[in-house]
Amino acid sequence: MGRKQDGRNCYDPEAKRDLVEVCLQPGISVARLAMQHGVNANLLRTWIGRYRKKHESAGAILAQPSAFIPVVGAKVAAPQGGGGLWATLPNGVRLDLSGLTEHELPQLLTWLSRLPCSGSPQG
Q: What is the mean pLDDT of residues 51-66?
């Protein structure tokens, strides 16, 4: 994000598109996502409207099916010793996923799968 001469923020078009596409997924809170990314919720809703208008006029399908199969009603048992549910990313960051609900975990995994990764194959 940069700033224009008049003081307004200037956002990367690819980052805007990625954020809008996450917002179009079922069950996503636009306000929460906006707060998490430091964007005004009304501005994000404006981007969503423009995205929809652009893609509807082109006849595109707005909501793409997830690459993940939804896990419904699955119960995750804590490993012996009460370790919880953790994920370690290739960069060494360790995520504590034990507090997520069955609805939040697939959303988080979808969001993480869309992040650029230096180890990802170029395609």
A: 67
